[in-house]
Amino acid sequence: MLPYSNQMFGRISEGVYGIFLTAEAIGGFIGAILSGFVNKSLSSKRLMLLLACSGIMLMLSTPFYSIFHNVIVLALSPALFSLFLSIFNIQFFSIVQRDVDNEFLGRVFGIIFTIAILFMPIGTGFFSVALNPNNTFNLFIIGASITILSLVFGILFKKYNIR
């Protein structure tokens, strides 16, 4: 949905997409640095909390736009989203490396990336049909979806005692 950000936030200015990409890169870089300070014995529940935080940060784009009408304030949303998502990704792959036997590590990473690549076109197709490029609430809807899914999985992890 980011390529449509100029349409979603039309009252600001041209170039919102480029500013969002820059904000995401900066957020990802800061997230990678901060990931080193996060507890290395993260649980699956904490990972889901990080993912929920990333969704909440994406949801902030709509209120930021409605209240401030400033591209710099609006760029905080994708920057913070990327920050939490980077921490999630780094910690997720650290947990996989820690918990999977070295003999099977390549296969496990292959399966993870294959599943991710297979679901990418499905997600693209779904969101291109379900969302209108001119709707200001698109990033809110996507962020809410991420947050709800991560909370559901967090509850399931707690219910079935998955660490």
TrEMBL record:
Main location: membrane
UniProt topology in membrane: Multi-pass membrane protein
Superkingdom to which the source organism belongs: Bacteria
Signal sequence, start to end: none
Entry keyword set: Cell membrane, Membrane, Transmembrane, Transmembrane helix
InterPro entries (alphabetical): MFS_trans_sf
Cell compartments where the protein resides: Cell membrane
GO (cellular component) term, any one: plasma membrane
Transmembrane domains' residue ranges: 15-35, 47-65, 71-96, 108-131, 137-157
Protein name: Major facilitator superfamily (MFS) profile domain-containing protein
Organism of provenance: Streptococcus constellatus subsp. pharyngis SK1060 = CCUG 46377
